[in-house]
Amino acid sequence: MEPQKVEVPLNLTLEELYSGCTKRRKVTRTIADGASGKTMPVEETLEIPVKAGWKEGTRITFTGKGDELPGRPAQDLVFVVKQKPHPVFTRDGDDLVATLRIPISKALGGGTVDVPSLDNRVLRVPLKEVVRPGYERLVANEGMPNSKTGVKGNLRLRFDIQFPRKQLSEEERGQLEAMLKDKY
Q: Domains in the chain, ordered, with CATH?
């Protein structure tokens, strides 16, 4: 008889999935005494080596580390990766996606945006063209590592352009129109 599998979620941050880490999980399982048929609880700490680039749904199996019932082989314990939500990034395969808020002046005039990375760097990303609605800036090799190849995906930046709260005065609107007259 094939032993059953017991699935347990392994909640990981995007940073842990980016860099890899070792997680320790304390598990309590039931083991059977073959002679008497009695069962007793046993506590054990398992080390789970998390590989950089693992994705949601990755399964890590510990053979025979689940419950053991009299006359049956011990169940397998399977940890299933669940990615915790991140305040800045979402993941799309090996790409990271972020939406940044920028003022309309930066959208029109360019400049740089500072983007925090998952390994505690700050990426200074230049904006060298007009940022229009739907514009996406690609930063090569700044996404998640692929767990098999180690090659990193891309960072895809999207923009939420912030407009002034107050409408421009007639004079300000005239100045703006004059500045933008030959830019279309």
A: 5-83 (2.60.260.20), 89-165 (2.60.260.20)
